[in-house]
Write a structure and sequence with these properties.
Helices cover 75% and strands 0% of the residues. It is an all-alpha fold and 102 residues long. α1 (4-34) packs antiparallel against α2, α1 (4-34) packs parallel to α3 (67-95) and α2 runs antiparallel to α3. The chain is elongated, with a radius of gyration of 19 Å.
Length: 102
């Protein structure tokens, strides 16, 4: 019969796997939301930011992540941040349209 410590390790490993799934889903959700967000004031943009925030908060709670999973998550986080920045830059560009002299 496994000891209490071993049971806790098994439970922690299972929890880490579940958290990793949630993190990946949140990042995928954030990326999908950005497909419909055209400005920074869009509700979809706000939801994508929230997904990124939640995913990064959950990653900090995972006790052990394999190098491969860590690289995959880091790549998704960077992609989502980059795409959020692109939406923000596009929104600023529309606020100040260029004028042409005649």
């Amino acid at each position: 019969m496994p000891s209490d410590t071993q049971k806790l390790r098994i439970l922690r490993a299972r929890t880490d796997r579940d958290l990793l799934l949630v993190v990946n889903r949140e990042l995928d959700r954030g990326l999908a939301l950005l497909d419909g967000a055209h400005t920074r004031s869009s509700p979809l943009y706000a939801q994508a930011e929230k997904a990124l925030s939640m995913a990064t908060a959950l990653v900090a709670r995972i006790s052990s992540v394999s190098q491969e999973d860590g690289r995959r998550i880091e790549a998704k986080v960077n992609e989502l941040r980059s795409r959020l920045d692109q939406v923000a830059a596009a929104a600023v560009a529309w606020v100040y349209p260029a004028t042409f002299a005649s």
